[in-house]
Amino acid sequence: MAVENLAADVQAFTSNVFLVSGDRTALVDTGANFDVVTEIESRVDGLDTVVLTHTHGDHIGNVDDVRAAFDVETVGYDPSQPAVDTELGETVRLGDHDYTVLHTPGHKDDHVCLYAPTASVCFAGDLVFANGAFGRTDLEEGDRETLIRSIDRLHDAVDPDLGALHAGHGPSVTESAYATIERAGQAARR
Prior knowledge:
Residues 14-169 form the Metallo-beta-lactamase domain. This is Glyoxylase, beta-lactamase superfamily II. Its cofactor is Zn(2+). Keywords: Hydrolase, Metal-binding, Zinc. GO terms for molecular function: hydrolase activity; metal ion binding. Helix content is 24%, strand content 23%. By secondary structure, the protein is α/β, with parallel strands linked by helices. It has a single domain, classed as Ribonuclease Z/Hydroxyacylglutathione hydrolase-like (Metallo-beta-lactamase, Chain A), CATH 3.60.15.10. The strands form 2 sheets. It has a 6-stranded mixed beta sheet with strand order 1-2-3-4-5-6, with no helix packed on it. The model has no long low-confidence stretch (mean pLDDT 97).
């Protein structure tokens, strides 16, 4: 399984966009304000699924372009959102692994994290970031106490030897990923 951030060098307001290769080629979030379709086409022949961590504009701005180019449905927590075609179940297959879907509101009501213990990988969306940072709660649907509970839920769900934490913004964490979640929980409580 390979995970690549297609937005790594983009100089526009966007989220990270993770292409997960393997048995089931998947995109985690679509980003916004850049040509993600060309980036995908330069790497793979098609997509099997698009999973949205939440429906803020910087994470879903390219949804319509991706749907049109790859004839693929988007999967998310809240199917009443226009960017979501199908509701996530308890698990979703990305690449070669099944990921547990953890509902983690606080940044936005429909926010989820995706965790695969066999791959030791977590897609954290905008819940936690590198260096123990945490998601904003000053936007609509944001709530600090709810976010803290969601960080605690993620912390309890992942293994202490978590190998990679892919955040919605900034760099992925490949060393001390579990400690990063702990630090985010501590920082959010201050």
